[in-house]
Amino acid sequence: QIQESGGGLVQAGGSRRLSCEASGFIFDDVSIGWFRQAPGKKREGVSCINNRDGSIYYADSVKGRFTISSDDAKNTVYLQMNSLKPEDTAVYFCYAGASTTYWGQGTQVTVSS
């Protein structure tokens, strides 16, 4: 089960932290991360952690502003979003998996200008 939280309305330049609790997984064996989808646009990969080798990915559009981190004891991954821009407005989806990918329901982040 994938459960996101932390979305909401924030002003441009502000910060927000998203949480993703991934229950029922062997956390060390999966990749876990975030996609986002803005209205009328394709779903875009934002950031992920590959827990098998520790590698981390960030989309160019969020590098230097977003930070992904993992609390293995809580099976939870966080996405700290700083210096938010109106173009970051989207539904943010958490996913986890290895050979099969599981998705959360998404959490809306709205950045006002």
Can you write the helix and strand succession as a string? EEEEEEEEEEE
Counted by DSSP, the helix tally is 0
* Percent of residues in beta strands: over 45%
Secondary structure tally: strands: 11
Structural class: mainly beta
Classify the helix fraction into a percent range: under 10%
Low-confidence stretches: none
* Shape, per Cα inertia axes: globular
Distance N terminus to C terminus?
34 Å
Major sheet details: 7 strands, mixed
Mean pLDDT: 94
Structural commentary:
The protein has about 110 residues and is mainly beta. It has no helices and eleven strands. The protein has strands at about 1-5, 10, 15-20, 30-35, 45-50, 55-60, 65-70, 75-80, 90-95, 100-105, 105-110. Strands 2, 4, 5, 6, 9, 10 and 11 form a seven-stranded mixed beta sheet that branches. The protein is globular. It starts with a strand and ends with a strand. The mean pLDDT is about 95.
Quick description:
With 113 residues, the chain is mostly beta strands. It has strands at residues 2-5, 8-11, 16-22, 31-37, 44-50, 55-58, 66-71, 76-81, 90-97, 101-103, 107-112.
Offer a few descriptive terms:
113 residues, 55% strand, 4-stranded antiparallel β-sheet, 7-stranded mixed β-sheet
Write the layout of secondary structure elements.
Layout lengths: L1 E4 L2 E4 L4 E7 L8 E7 L6 E7 L4 E4 L7 E6 L4 E6 L8 E8 L3 E3 L3 E6 L1
Parallel strand pairs: 2-11
Antiparallel strand pairs: 1-3, 3-8, 4-5, 4-9, 5-6, 7-8, 9-10, 9-11
